[in-house]
Design goal:
With 294 residues, this protein is α/β, with parallel strands linked by helices. The chain binds adenosine-5'-triphosphate (ATP) and magnesium ion.
Length: 294
């Protein structure tokens, strides 16, 4: 049903004129481990949400700018402002670093809008080192102060493979968290570390930590028995540690995903059977997102 009817978000607010004001839900794909599929899953889930009628904004928060590249934006070779300037401009104390740009100048419009990243984003931590306002809340406050939340149904944030200040900012700004992981011997430690960081955020008391919407096993090699048993034991541990944490059906290592990625296309741009299965899997992620109420 979700395929054909656009649902109104539970968090949409009616104003005094009875008009519905949007209130975007902010979701991030995050894991401090590199190469687990954060960018690939962000990109395709954004397309899946768009395809069922939602208005979607992607924000690239990774200085590597891989998500921007998937949208054909090469910020490494351009002087154009990106998310870094918007974040800096939103901090009053950093007046000397401010530029003219606001988010409407920076967002690149399309079927899915995107605020790109660029290399300067890696200097974020240093740039805000001396400010008095809370450093973990720069992104959250930027989203709240601008009209961005009112302009979209969903905001999908792609994260860098670290646990530094950028990622803490993402975790404070997001309400929903998707955790892709590769079920190898190192991932248990990584996942429990990530959950500790979520608890730390709650402890800081400045923002609520996001709800974990799904753990997503990715790049699973169906032919390797070891991975199958690693996955089983990780799922078991996650369930014991976190009681009700959802672990979705694994995404297998698929040549078709590599192909669409290389062509900068989503899995919905293809018709063959391989892609059909992937489309079904991404639609399932949409169901999880739509059924979740903040
Ligand atoms: N299920 C899959 N099957 C095949 N290839 C995949 C799959 N998921 C991701 N990939 C490929 O693996 C590589 C890493 O994926 P991706 O860039 O999405 O990971 P990431 O977590 O964003 O990495 P980083 O931490 O560097 O940002 C990419 O080349 C991507 O095309
Ligand atoms: Mg990435």
């Amino acid at each position: 049903m979700g395929m054909f009817f656009k649902q109104r978000n539970s968090s949409d607010k009616e104003n005094v004129f009875g008009q519905v004001k949007k209130q975007a839900k902010v979701i991030t794909f995050l894991n401090q481990k590199g190469g687990v599929g954060k960018t690939t899953l962000s990109f395709n889930t954004a397309h899946a949400l768009k395809n069922v009628g939602h208005k979607v904004l992607c924000i690239d928060m990774d200085p590597q700018s891989n998500l921007s590249l998937l949208f054909n934006i090469d910020s490494t070779n351009s002087e154009a402002p990106h998310i870094f300037q918007l974040l800096i401009n939103s901090v009053k104390e950093l007046k000397t670093l401010h530029t003219e740009s606001n988010w409407l100048d920076v967002v690149i419009k399309g079927d899915i809008d995107i605020i790109p990243a660029g290399q300067e984003l890696s200097g974020f931590e240093l740039s805000v080192a001396g400010i008095n306002s809370p450093r973990p809340l720069v992104l959250k406050r930027f989203l709240e102060k601008s009209k961005i939340l009112e302009s979209y149904d969903y905001i999908i944030i792609d994260s860098p493979p670290t646990l530094g200040l950028l990622v803490v900012n993402i975790l404070c700004a997001a309400e929903g968290l998707m955790v892709p992981f590769r079920p190898d011997e190192f991932s248990k430690k990584g996942l429990s570390h990530l959950h500790e960081v979520l608890l730390d955020i709650e402890d800081m008391g400045v923002a609520a930590a996001p709800s974990v919407l799904a753990h997503i096993p990715n790049l699973v090699d169906a032919r390797r028995k070891q991975e199958g048993s690693d996955l089983k034991s990780i799922v078991k541990d996650l369930k014991e540690d976190l009681k009700t944490v959802p672990v979705v059906e694994p995404f297998y290592n698929r040549a078709s995903l590599v192909k669409s990625h290389a062509a900068k296309k989503s899995v919905y741009d293809y018709n063959s059977k391989d892609f059909k299965n992937l489309q079904i899997q991404f639609n399932q992620l949409v169901n999880i997102i739509e059924e979740w109420r903040v």
